Automatic annotation (TrEMBL):
It comes from the Eukaryota. This is Syntaxin-1B. GO terms for cellular component: membrane. The lineage of its organism: Eukaryota, Metazoa, Ecdysozoa, Arthropoda, Hexapoda. Transmembrane segments: none annotated.
């Protein structure tokens, strides 16, 4: 489900970080590692788009239930699940964005202190 996809993105984020460190640490970038990084980034993007679509679908179903004045336990549970999944997704994507921003700063400054990617 959605949680599994978010977990996959989180695992990808960790792998992206490792690949970025490997690329920045190496005197000459390994083309295989670069390709693996690109594949991870593409997979993360695709999975994130799927998660967004599924969260949007859940939100629309919740809104439809609200319009029908359904105050059922099921609707409240779905609202909580949606909120929790959305929050987790935002946190994971924020971590991904922060790693990407840190890499760009390192590359721009020419300062390849990979400890800066640990955050």
């Amino acid at each position: 489900g959605i949680q599994g996809m978010i977990n996959k993105i989180e695992a990808n984020v960790e792998e992206v970080k490792k690949k970025r460190i490997a690329i920045l640490s190496a005197p000459q970038a390994d083309e295989k590692v670069k390709q693996e990084l690109e594949d991870l980034k593409e997979d993360t993007k695709k999975t994130a788009n799927t998660v967004c679509a599924k969260l949007e679908e859940i939100e629309q179903n919740i809104e439809a239930g609200d319009q029908l004045n359904k105050s059922s336990v099921d609707l409240r549970i779905r609202k909580i699940q949606h909120s929790t999944l959305s929050q987790t997704f935002v946190e994971v994507m924020s971590k991904y964005r922060k790693i990407t921003e840190n890499v760009l700063k390192l590359e721009f400054n020419g300062n390849y202190n990979v400890d800066d990617l640990s955050t």
